[in-house]
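Sanity check

After download, print the first record. It should look like this:
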Amino acid sequence: MDRRADRVDLSGRRPDPRRRWHPRCAEPGGRRPRQGRRRAGRRGSRLGPDERSTARARTARDRPRSRVVTTIGVIQARMGSSRLPGKILASLGDESVLASTVRRLRAASLVDEVIVATTDQADDQETVGAAVSLGARVVRGSLHDVLGRFGTALEEAPGDVIVRVTADCPLLDPSLVDEVIAAVVGGADYATNRLPPPWTRTTPVGLDVEAMSAEALRTALAEATEPHQREHVTPYFYENPDRFGIELIDLPRDLSHLRVTVDTAEDLEIVRRLAPHLTALSRWQELADLAEAQPSLFARHETARQKDYRVVDARRRPS
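Expected structure tokens:
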């Protein structure tokens, strides 16, 4: 689908002046609830786990303001999950986990194209077939060098802003995707609504979005050498906050206790319970309201923990 009418230029306005719009709004003519932002960057001190930095990210004045911005949404996906193999094609009723993630990312008004970045392993031929059936472009690359796959995606579909989501987030909120993209359009090199432990977060686990400028991605591709930096794509940015303008977007409420990702069999069971109670493009507010009204839907027997971002896949072969 041609989405050029939905693109924005760096002045923060749609090409069509008849539609009132602001890049930090979720919908034309409407404003999202005000959300907090934590900034750190070249002019600030290093970003600490609980820091609420007042350092300013690079502003839009540092970049050209006359051209149209193209945003590429990249979903990293593979069949060989260590905790729940094949989870991305698990059924949620009418669609798979991957299909829901693709549909919701595509629904973000600032995303021009969706690419599924999978591995060159034999079992991911099934991933390729599923992505193609959903109308998504596919790139393939190294199992562990996921950053390299994002570089391939940028080569295949050159863009100004690259969004990163993972295929195990079937309840992704398109409005949060737009919020994070808008931060990069506004001048940040890297923006996100979560940073991994040990940093704090307010966003439910499973609504994670990251976006970066093409320039920042190319820098990481050239300079990131540590295994965890290549496997987890974005650590090079928040490990070097003196070099990049970083914007961390918080929700107005702390919903970090909610977990709607699909990493384990119990995660999948919970998302299947939640799906019938949510609209097709549910937003984080619906999850918050549902958690208050029916907390039993979120109940779990085991404590699921997010991996430390410095941990790499134990199946990685020594180089």
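If your output differs, re-run the checksum step. Summary of this record's structure: The CA atoms of residues 84 and 264 lie 5 Å apart.
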